[in-house]
Amino acid sequence: MNATGFAWPTRAGIPWIELLLLLVAVFWGTSYGMTKSALVYTSVFMFLAVRFLLTFLVLLIPTLRDFKQGRNSDWRAALPTGAILLLIFCCEVFGVSQTTATNAAILISLSAIFTVFVEMWVNNKRMNLGYLGFAFASIVGVALLTFDGSFSESLNTGDLLILTAALLRAFMVTTTKRFTEGKQITTLSLTALQSLVVGLGALFVVLAKPEIHSTGLLPDATEFWFITGYLVLFCTLFAFFVQNYAVRKLSPTKVSLLMGSEPLFGALFAVVWLGEALTLIQIGGAITIFVSVMLVTIKKVE
Fold it and tell me: Where are the alpha helices (DSSP H) in the chain?
């Protein structure tokens, strides 16, 4: 047990944190197709409110225990990252509703490239020419992935929102490390408070702007609650706990890059779950982005 309130199993030679981050990539890769299905039954903000308030309720008891034991004296460190997380999910979920799940999963992987540059900027590091090359290759990949016969209007609104979410993810992992480094707050509490900020923010929009929520009360469809339960347990509780823990142990760049396989799982899942398909040009763009992310991962691990 340590300052994060949790201790991972350890065994010599097995990089547990890195392996768990790759598992997060698998779960997050499936989340785009799942989210697209869930939005059939409700609005974006109601979906976010349900998902993240449920996450907070699940974590409430262990979080209260940590507060009683005086382990969360710096709990305010979670609030700024929670606000960034709210913006990320607004962009992601609105983006998924307006583009394909495959595009969303692949475009979001650019957060790994963005994180390299954000960390360099925040920590005043010198720019690496190799990363500039990978970034350029990724931009070419984005152009190919979103190509629909004409480059004049290839990027739609959904694609642009996902790209914005990818940039915000880069700021998320970087600022989480900065705000929590040396602070007294457990990883469980950090995850819970971030979820509370996202859930309350989304609920506020639902109550303040009922005209954008036209689907009535909570959905009663079994599929919606199955999807929501899956997202809460695996894509929120597990994923954000692992990310919050890992970013306090590893560099933000390494955390983002280790999850760079997310688009592969996302694209495969979208093909199986939603029956989406890619043209040969789009497949070439997806491979370009994925290879760029993987090469950055190999080139820089810290």
Answer: 16-38, 44-68, 78-98, 101-107, 111-122, 129-145, 157-180, 187-208, 222-230, 239-247, 252-258, 262-274, 280-299
Alpha-carbon 161 to chain mean position: 13
Establish how many alpha carbons lie within 13 A of residue 207's alpha carbon, considering only the half-sphere containing its beta carbon: 7
Burial letters 219-252, b for 16+ CB under 10 A, else e: beeeebbebbebbbebbbbbbbbbbbbbbbebbb
Q: Tens digit of pLDDT for each residue in 154-197?
A: 568 898 999 999 999 888 888 887 888 788 888 889 889 999 99
Q: What is the residue-wise DSSP string for 226-257?
A: HHHHHIIIIIIIIHHHHHHHHHTTS-HHHHHH
As a whole number of angstroms, the distance between CA 24 and CA 29 comes to 8
Tens of pLDDT, residues 88-116 = 989 988 898 888 877 787 788 778 778 77
Element (H, E) at 108: none
- How open is the CA angle 113-114-115, to the nearest 5 degrees? 90
More confident residue, 97 or 11: 97
Angle between helices 239-247 and 16-38 (to 10 degrees): 140
